[in-house]
Amino acid sequence: MTPQTLPVLDAPTAETRLVSGAEALLLGLLAEGVDTIFGYPGGAILPIYDALYDFKEQLNHVLVRHEQGGIHAGQGYARASGKVGVVFATSGPGATNLVTGLADAQIDSTPLVCITGQVFAHLLGTDAFQETDVINITAPVTKWNYQVTEAREIPEILAKAFYIARSGRPGPVLIDITKNAQLDQLPFAGYVPCARIRSYRPVPVVRPEAVAQAAALINRAQRPLVLWGQGVVLGGAEREFREFIEKSGIPAAWTILGAGVLPTAHPLNVGMLGMHGNYGPNVLTNECDVLIAIGMRFDDRVTGRLDKYARQAQVIHLDIDPTEIDKNVAATVPVWGDCKQTLPLLTQLVEARTHAGWRQRFDQFQAEEVDAVIQDALFPTTAALTMGEVIQQLNELTQGEAILVSDVGQHQMVTCRYARLEESRRHITSGGLGTMGFALPAAIGTKFGVPERTVVAIIGDGGVQMTIQELGTLMQTGIAVKIIVLNNQFLGMVRQWQELFSERRYSFVNIESPDYVAVARGYRIEGQSVAARAELRPALEAMLAHPGSFLLEVMVAQEQNIFPMVPQGCSVAEIRLR
Questions:
Q1: Is 67 a catalytic residue?
Q2: Which of 1, 129, 364, 379 is catalytic?
């Protein structure tokens, strides 16, 4: 089921029975096709957990070790499976511990429904024990939120929550339910899914004249460039995108959340955009004559200095969210709508071309990048291991079939740059918010979402310590997640900036780590640590072959920098190879 698809549910029957608000909630979750919930119980949500006791055979509840771990797990589940992630938390600190994950899901357009317990309705506003104003706290970081104070509201509000979370540009929704609403009874005649809200228009009307104008620009272009983002994935438009690219012959570059829509080796895939992206697509953004943005939002890590970004180009912007068009980069032709609808219309009108000479420019820049950066990153001659060679060996062993879940930092950029991806939803990471600690719980959620896949979490020694307690979730559930900790004994990305721009004034970026293998074994998870090149491949093979979870620590070069790099405040054309 894609994020745009509503389940087909039975209409309510005439038979009505009394159920508690908590039971009505769980019946609604089942009707929405939910199979897994990530959560942590507490007093204010206790009636829902009590009702859940009778649904254990139908709803799999994963007990996380921290609410932030729960919501990141929900994100991983949603991003990998295309379904809506569901998270439970109690009131007060339980609810506020969700805020980082909500903000992360909001900016990365991840569909979630979060259910929080709340104190009794008559205690609202009295500073009761574990009471917080969760609605006002979470309003800026949710697509929609709502506080339920009466049991009879629950079915309708839950249906709206799922519809809003998954429709249009997806996002997180939070429902705060007072304890009395969970306990009180309501007449229940069945669950009715929501298919329309009068004041909510999730998909704008496609304007054929805009599509025609876009096609005319593309057909006249001599140096066109496509930039694609996660909107292609969320719209389930991978096939439509590929048909457009292959007919038009236009070179295409991707944002980190759009990775995999075109296979890594596809001849029209010219690489990653942005601060640590590939040399060619960054430089040539400022030489193209028509820039076609599809399902991406022109964030600052992609554009660099806006006043020096693609000033020579006419811009076509396809997006389902009209607020993203003209927000950062002015569009010559805005094409509103779901790209699954707009791309086929555009493909019909564009001419079949090859742009051979223009594509050779990208090949030339790529060859220069290989000589200056990529060769040393993947096949180093130095004694110290590099992050890039770990990813390269992982590519060879998994053949692009594994799902990689990366945290935030240097290892994330290395994974983005060098992972072999054959299709979408094979690399999951925190994009817009850049949340350290994301990967371990998100990998757990990913494994529950697609249990048939090998899931590998790639984490730095800083990020892993932020949510390391979720090893307990792995221990209790028994699922198999492979964890690679790339340990450079630094907060590497911050250290790189301090080296390049602060004269090596390494201010509080040295980080000491525990014995990760001993910690893992304390959670009954096997592990190994390697520091020599000869040990790396056998260790990766042992990790992948192990039937359960496995933690592999790889000691890598301490002061390895990630290049290319667009320095902050510079144009994308000022990208540095050294």
A1: yes
A2: 129
